[in-house]
From TrEMBL:
Residues 174-269 form the FecR protein domain. GO terms for molecular function: sigma factor antagonist activity. PANTHER family: PERIPLASMIC SIGNAL SENSOR AND SIGMA FACTOR ACTIVATOR FECR-RELATED, PROTEIN FECR. The chain crosses the membrane at residues 76-94. This is DUF4974 domain-containing protein. Pfam families: FecR (PF04773), FecR_C (PF16344). Keywords: Membrane, Transmembrane, Transmembrane helix. The keyword Transmembrane applies. Residues 312-380 form the Protein FecR C-terminal domain. Coiled coil: none annotated.
Length: 382
């Protein structure tokens, strides 16, 4: 099968316009390729998924696939300093000139499901409420505030103005997500917050005074309700982010080398603890490197920073350690490195709804890394 013919068939496969003869040709080509280069028997389900992966990895379709992304779809193009993966004419080509087809992992002994909507709410009196999807409705009343939840994993704070105005006490709540959890909350002022895995937010149940201040750990995305008279401030260890009303993402995990604040809409002021201040425009990211406290601003694709909120991993020239940290938090697994090159870079997108084995299998297609899964331990090998 020549390159042009292979590309045309892959296009028609994705569009669902293959004839029976063309489908048979494409599938027989792929099955022949896969079975001749690995020890795996390809099931029909695996075949469908792998054909999707192959098509989506074609660099010429990168933009189109990106625009059509939806939950449970998958697209993955490995590029930049590491590799570009695409399959045409029955061959696997790598940017770094590797010509040997990688042997895929045969099977993983443990099926590890992706994370889900899960969190713990700590009330002002230190009572803890597990937020799962088994119930909905009002779950707490504090100082004129009603806290309610939906079965879809959303917590909402509603102010009873009359009761709240008669109580000058400011009560604080904390929402914490575990490893493998995420959650969404609507604060009393209407600000919406999405928490990624292993993250937390501490906030007043109602905002009073001259500012709206919250504290976070881990990663959170904010859509801040506008209020020019009461600035919204987010404290995240190394910095304070101040806004009036905007959309932005903060990643401040303690095990990562940097704190990143990415602006999608509006304007934010990022102030380091040492007094340095940067003002961001949409499409910019403030990056604080912890090892030397360097503080820089760069232009980025802001949508990449909130990929997790939209249901997928986005790797943009990320090193292997950073990628494995993300997988560890979402799938609740321990990562062990065995002579792996942690500096190699990967780029691409994978749905967070996939089982861990499916994600690892895609990474292994680069030929640059292998994995061994034992229980909830993942060993990373060259």
């Amino acid at each position: 099968m020549i390159e042009k013919e292979a590309q045309e068939l892959l296009k028609k496969y994705r569009l669902g316009t293959l004839t029976d003869q063309e489908r048979a040709l494409l599938e027989s080509w792929y099955i022949q390729y896969a079975r001749s280069n690995s020890n795996i028997d390809i099931s029909q389900e695996e075949l469908q998924e792998d054909l999707d992966n192959i098509y989506n990895a074609l660099p010429i379709h990168k933009k189109a696939v990106r625009n059509l992304f939806a939950p449970r779809s998958i697209r993955f193009s490995l590029y930049a300093a590491s590799v570009v993966l695409f399959m045409i004419a029955g061959m696997l080509f790598l940017k770094n000139k590797q010509r040997h087809v990688p042997k895929l992992a045969s099977a993983y002994q443990t099926t590890i499901a992706p994370g889900k909507s899960s969190a713990v709410l700590t009330l002002a009196d230190n009572r803890k409420i597990v937020l799962d999807n088994n119930f909905s409705g009002a779950i707490a009343h504090e100082n004129g505030i009603t806290v309610s939840k939906t079965t879809a994993g959303l917590l909402r704070y509603t102010v009873n103005e009359k009761q709240a105005s008669n109580d000058a006490t400011v009560a604080y709540n904390t929402i914490s997500t575990p490893v493998g959890g995420e959650y969404q909350v609507v604060l009393a002022d209407g600000t919406e917050v999405w928490l990624n895995a292993l993250s937390s937010i501490r906030f007043p149940t109602s905002f009073k005074g001259s500012e709206r201040k919250v504290e976070i750990t881990g990663e959170a995305y904010f859509e801040v309700a506008k209020n020019a008279q009461m600035p919204f401030r987010v404290v995240s260890g190394y910095q304070v982010v101040e806004v009036l009303g905007t959309h932005f993402n903060i990643s401040a995990y303690p095990d990562e080398s940097a704190v990143a604040t990415t602006l999608l809409e509006g304007s934010v002021k990022v102030a380091m603890n040492d007094g340095q201040v940067k003002v961001l425009k949409p499409g910019q990211q403030a990056l604080i490197l912890k090892k030397n406290n360097s503080f820089t601003v760069k232009d980025v694709d802001a949508e990449d920073a909130v990929a997790w909120k939209n249901g997928y991993f986005q790797f943009a020239d990320d090193d292997l350690k950073s990628i494995m940290n993300q997988l560890s938090r979402w799938y609740n697994v321990e990562i062990v490195y065995q002579h792996a090159n942690l500096d190699q870079k990967f780029g691409g997108t994978i749905s967070r709804s996939k089982n861990l084995s499916q994600v690892l299998r895609i990474l292994e297609l680069t030929g640059n890394v292998r994995f061994r899964v034992e229980g909830r331990r993942v060993t990373v090998m060259p």
